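Quick one, C-alpha cells below:
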C-alpha cells in the first residue's frame, strides 16, 4: 500500500534545523514508498462554523509529521481525522514548559525545583513575589519563558535586582523560575527517543562559557554512553507524555539526572553527526509501522 504524508511547518520562518529535519526524514520515508509534501501553516485554513463544527481544508494525506508547534492547527487537523506525529496534546504539553512539569509531577520524575510566575498583563510590580521566590529557590536563579526553543528566552539572574529586571523585560510573556544546577553549568545530555525507546544520546557542551548548552547558541556535541538510570527515566517521561518522537534535555544533578525540558520536534542533525546513528531512518520506519 502506498501512503502519502506531509510535513507541517511554520509559514513565517524556518531554521536550518527544520530544513535538515524535513530533508532527511522525507528522503527516508520516500525510500519506504511514502510520498511526502511540505505544508506551511499559513496554507492551512480551519473554520469553526455556525453549526459548531470545525472544518479544515480537505487534505489528501494519511498522516502529517508536525514540525511546527501551533496547537490550534493541530487540534483542527486531528478533528478532521488526520493522524499526527506527534499528537496535538503531546506537542502542547511539551511546548509549554510549565505544562510539561505539571504532566510529569507526582510520578517519580526528578526535576529542578520550579515555580511559575503569576501572569502580569498590566505591568504590575512583581517585587513581593520575586523576593519570596528568590528566598525559596536561591541565587543564581534561572528565569525563562514558558514558550521558547534553542535557548531563547532563558536567563540567569545572580541577584534580586537582576531577577526584577529580567522579569520586567519578559512581560507579558508567561514565565517560570527554576533553581540553577551548578553541576550542569554549560553542559547537559540530549536524549532522542522514538516510540518511547532511546535511540541516541549525546552530551551538549557550550563553547562560549554560557550556562546554556544549546547547539544553536554555539555549543557542540560529544559522544557518551548513556547510563541505564537516565535511559529508563527518559523512556518513562516519553510514555507519560505519549510521544512518538522527542528530544529530552537532562541535567547532571548533584544526586543524579534531572529532567529539564522535553522537545516534541527536536532537531537531530547534531545527534546523527556525533553518534553515527541514522535517526531519520529509524523514525521513518516507526511512522510506517504505525500507519
Amino acid at each position: 500500500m502506498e501512503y502519502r504524508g506531509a510535513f507541517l511547518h511554520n509559514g513565517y520562518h524556518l531554521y536550518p534545523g527544520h530544513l535538515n529535519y524535513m530533508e532527511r526524514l522525507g528522503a527516508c520515508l520516500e525510500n519506504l514508498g511514502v510520498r511526502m509534501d511540505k505544508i506551511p501553516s499559513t496554507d492551512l485554513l480551519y473554520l469553526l462554523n455556525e453549526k459548531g463544527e470545525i472544518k479544515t481544508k480537505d487534505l489528501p494525506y494519511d498522516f502529517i509529521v508536525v514540525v511546527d508547534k501551533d496547537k490550534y492547527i493541530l487540534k483542527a487537523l486531528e478533528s478532521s481525522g488526520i493522524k499526527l506525529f506527534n499528537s496535538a496534546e503531546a506537542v502542547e504539553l511539551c511546548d509549554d514548559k510549565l505544562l510539561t512539569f505539571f504532566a510529569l509531577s507526582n510520578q517519580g520524575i526528578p526535576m529542578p525545583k520550579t515555580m511559575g510566575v503569576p501572569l502580569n498583563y498590566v505591568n504590575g510590580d512583581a517585587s513581593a513575589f520575586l523576593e519570596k521566590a528568590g528566598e525559596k529557590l536561591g541565587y543564581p536563579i534561572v528565569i525563562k519563558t514558558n514558550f521558547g526553543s534553542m535557548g531563547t528566552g532563558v536567563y540567569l539572574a545572580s541577584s534580586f535586582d537582576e531577577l526584577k529586571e529580567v522579569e520586567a523585560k519578559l512581560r507579558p510573556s508567561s514565565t517560570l523560575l527554576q533553581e540553577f544546577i551548578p553541576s550542569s553549568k554549560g553542559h547537559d545530555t540530549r536524549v532522542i527517543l522514538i516510540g518511547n525507546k532511546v535511540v541516541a544520546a549525546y552530551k551538549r557542551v557550550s563553547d562560549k562559557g554560557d550556562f546554556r548548552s544549546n547547539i544553536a547558541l554555539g555549543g557542540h556535541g560529544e559522544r557518551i554512553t548513556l547510563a541505564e538510570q537516565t535511559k529508563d527515566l527518559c523512556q518513562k517521561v516519553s510514555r507519560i507524555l505519549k510521544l512518538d518522537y522527542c528530544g529530552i534535555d537532562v541535567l547532571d544533578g548533584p544526586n543524579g539526572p534531572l529532567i529539564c525540558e522535553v522537545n516534541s520536534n527536536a532537531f537531530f542533525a547534531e545527534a546523527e553527526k556525533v553518534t553515527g546513528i541514522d535517526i531519520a531512518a529509524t523514525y521513518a520506519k516507526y511512522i510506517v509501522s504505525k500507519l
